[in-house]
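Handout, section B. The chain below has 113 residues.
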Amino acid sequence: MHNFKNLKVWQKSVDLAVKIYKITSEFPVSEKFGMTSQMRRAGVSIPSNIAEGTAKSFSNSLEISLGESFELETQMIIAERVNLISNETAQQLEADISEVQRMILGFKATLTT
């Protein structure tokens, strides 16, 4: 069993979730139950599933985290296209999301089946 708090992939994904909260706090109130809620849920789900994997099937939990990261990436693209975030913010988020995705895939590759 891993201590999930020591995993760099978990730490980086928590940082990403915090960043999502900060960015979405600037969204219009009309997006509270729309894009704000969706992006926060996906952002929080990434490290949550990594943590959950320490207690059960790590491989499956990492796949779910990866799926959530793709969902977040899609939401980020839509947020940029509807002008909720700037191109610069989108580029920064894309880099952070891509890094987490690479870390998840790399960690998954180290697991024995």
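Note. The CA atoms of residues 76 and 90 lie 7 Å apart. Compare this with the example in section A.
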